[in-house]
Design goal:
The structure holds two protein chains of two kinds. Chain A starts with a helix and ends with a helix. Chain A is mainly alpha-helical. Chain A has a domain of 126 residues. By secondary structure, chain B is mainly alpha-helical. Chain B folds into two domains: 46 residues, no CATH class; 127 residues, no CATH class. Helices cover 80% and strands 0% of the residues of chain B. Chain B has ten helices and no strands. In chain B, α7 runs antiparallel to α8. The longest helix of chain B has 25 residues. The chains are: A mainly alpha, B mainly alpha. Chains A and B meet through α1, α2, α5, α6 and α7 of A and α1, α2, α3, α4 and α6 of B.
């Protein structure tokens, strides 16, 4: 699907340019775009390094583990079928904590481990269980405390206050997460 | 409420720094050495997204400078004005659930063209941060256990993304 959309942007753009007589400006825009993409990447190296360095400290100090123990109880409410001490529950809480902290690289393997544990408990192996769907939706609407890459992009673009979107993002992401949970609770009655 | 959002934005990063470093030190981690170890990955991470950024900057650049973007914006304006949001963020909404790197490219392009501190820049930033690459996440997680039928997970994930986008438009209008 992404292949079609990407191609559509280019082909429709070029056809419209031919009609509106802006073909030269449009060709130029393509080259300008390629150049500024690389310039942006250089601007991002610094903030990526800063953040990945800090995240390494969080990872090595066992912060994810420590926070997960506290989260297990509250998270259990969303997974009433699972015993709180199950390995599935453990992997899921660690994945969600890693997501909240913005440890993307650590979150994915934990999430895959959680899915494998959930599959062991799943009765119909060809369809995801309700717990799996809930877990996936929690991941696709995951709350992230500090959206670092976006702050980096804003700073590279010369924002006067790159971090000013942290608060608004937190509110919006909580809305998204709550809606996702609600959607799972409603949809699972019909599918 | 608005004051609280502002305070979070100002203090989140410094508190995060203090907390993580102090916790690491308390747990006996050599914080400087560990930081360096992690920071080395910054270079490769930044370079890894170059092809995605180039692809999206070129495609959106063509689409915008040809005038096609203006036509589409004109078309969707009524829907967006209903919510009070800028129609310029539409390409981000379309791409977001499909590709994280591609939508990052679109966001970067929006920030460059309209400025990060414009309402377009702020709404796009907030929307990007409050949504996820739903298609990708679902395919990775279900693929890991060999399940093809996603049941209602895709629908619920996309509903959550939609809620994130709408919430971003509303909150940015109220807050900024």
């Amino acid at each position: 699907m992404i292949n079609i959309i990407w191609m559509a942007f280019i082909i429709i753009g070029l056809l419209v340019a031919a009609v509106t007589g802006r073909i030269e400006a449009t060709t130029q825009a393509a080259f300008d775009g390629a150049r500024s993409a690389v310039e942006l990447c250089f601007a991002l190296i610094g903030i990526y390094s800063l953040w990945l360095g800090l995240m390494k400290v969080a990872e090595k100090s066992g912060l994810v583990n420590a926070l997960s123990k506290r989260m297990r109880g509250p998270l259990g409410i969303l997974f009433p079928d699972l015993p709180p001490s199950s390995p599935a529950m453990g992997a899921m809480t660690m994945n969600i904590i890693a997501n909240i902290l913005g440890l993307g690289n650590a979150a994915t393997p934990l999430g895959i481990k959680a899915m494998k544990e959930l599959q062991k408990l799943n009765r119909d192996k060809a369809r995801p269980s309700n717990a799996m769907c809930m877990f996936i939706v929690l991941n696709t609407s995951s709350i992230q405390l500090i959206p670092t890459t976006i702050i980096g992009l804003r700073s590279a673009a010369g924002s006067a206050n790159p971090a000013e979107i942290i608060g608004t993002t937190l509110v919006a992401t909580i809305c998204a997460c709550a809606t996702g949970i609600l959607a799972v609770l409603i949809l699972r009655r019909y599918y | 409420m608005l004051e609280a959002i502002k305070i979070i934005s100002v203090f989140a990063i410094p508190l995060f720094f203090i907390f993580i470093l102090a916790y690491g030190h308390f747990k006996g981690i050599a914080v400087y050495d560990t930081f360096i170890e992690g920071a080395k990955e910054g270079l490769t991470t930044a370079f890894r997204i170059v092809p995605y950024l180039v692809a999206m900057f070129v495609a959106i650049g063509i689409f915008r400078s040809s005038g096609a973007m203006d036509m589409v914006t004109e078309l969707v304006k009524p829907i967006f004005s209903l919510l009070g949001g800028p129609p310029e963020v539409l390409p981000l909404f379309i791409m977001r659930p499909m590709s994280g790197a591609a939508s990052l490219g679109i966001l970067a392009e929006l920030l460059k063209v309209y400025g990060p501190d414009s309402i377009i820049g702020r709404t796009a930033s907030t929307a990007m941060g409050s949504t996820e690459t739903t298609f990708y996440t679902i395919s990775v997680y279900l693929g890991a256990v060999g399940i093809k039928n996603a049941r209602y997970a895709l629908a619920a994930g996309l509903i959550a993304d939609m809620a994130g986008f709408i919430a971003s438009i509303i909150i940015c209008n109220v807050f900024f």
